[in-house]
Amino acid sequence: MSVLELCDREIAAVPLDATVADAIHKMLDYHVGAVAIVDSEYRVAGIFTERDVLRKMSLTRLDPQTSSIRDLMTTPVEMATRQTGAGEALSIMLTSHFRHLPVADDNGKLLGILSIRNLLEWRVDQLSRELDSLEQYVSNDGPGG
Amino acid sequence: MSVLELCDREIAAVPLDATVADAIHKMLDYHVGAVAIVDSEYRVAGIFTERDVLRKMSLTRLDPQTSSIRDLMTTPVEMATRQTGAGEALSIMLTSHFRHLPVADDNGKLLGILSIRNLLEWRVDQLSRELDSLEQYVSNDGPGG
Question: Which residue of A has its CA nearest to B66?
């Protein structure tokens, strides 16, 4: 399974010349907690999250309508590729305390955005299935069977 | 195991007469995404999350220093009790799309705050342990063993 299957269905991205308000609207419209900032060739230039809104904006007098996302985004961004395993991506996020991880191709072009919540839910499903099949095996052919 | 063991270590709470800025400072200081609002007897009156900052505040001209948390908090709040199982709490949160769930005693007094992330990590750990012990059982005593 590709890690892309675990990404949010719609990719939340805004261009480098977007305002902070554009990025916030995108997060609200897409019901996600992070938006990728992409250059004119759709390469990932930065990331901006609802945590950034809390940390960098909520207690300031910055006007989101006139503030450039370029000034508030986090950059550079750690990213996954199409080849990154889901378990590996989860491990990166748990270790680095990231809640979101963009997936990019070899040229840095944005393919999707992973969230730790999606990955944890995937891991719960995966482990549950493994456990079910092992339990079935034990009850069919197990000791004394 | 009590669901309280899965709550954030420090309880992020502010009184009903706090400002929105107080609530935001509390989330930033405690590195959490939600703060409970409590009355003078420490009963849960509402909840305020970083998602609420995004939705209700970030695109407005509200001044967090002078806005009352009472006006922006979500109320009433769905809550767990000491008797709620961790699996049950996780299920409530997944179904209702809550990321946080306060735990209260029989009088509504705040005991802790659960996050979906903590619960999903607990579930991954729990399933991994079950799987390990079943695998060990199969390899020790399983078919042909």
Answer: A59
Task: Write the residue in B24, B33, B123 that is nearest to A58 by C-beta.
Answer: B24
CB A85, CB A3: distance < 8 Å: yes
User: Given an 8 Å threshold on Cβ–Cβ distance, is A24 in contact with B54?
Assistant: yes
The class (CATH top level) of A3-116 is: alpha beta
* Model pLDDT for residues A34-44, shown as the tens digit of each residue: 999 999 999 99
Distance CA A39, CA B54 (A): 24
Q: Is the CATH code 3.40.640.10 the one for domain B3-141?
A: no
**What are the domain boundaries of chain A?**
3-116
Q: Chain A: give the shortest CA distance to residue B34, in Å.
A: 11
Q: Record the pTM.
A: 0.89
Tell me: the pLDDT tens digits for A55-79? 999 999 899 999 999 999 999 999 9
Strands A100-104 and A110-115: antiparallel
Nearest one of B105, B113, B140, B133 to B9, comparing CA atoms: B113
Residues in chain A closer than 8 A to B6 (CB atoms): none
Q: Cα angle at B28 between B24 and B29, to 5 degrees?
A: 115
- CB nearest B123 (choices: A53, A124, A134): A124
What's the ipTM?
Answer: 0.85
The minimal CB distance from B51 to the residues A50, A94, A142 is found for A50
Closest residue in B to A97 (Cα) is B31
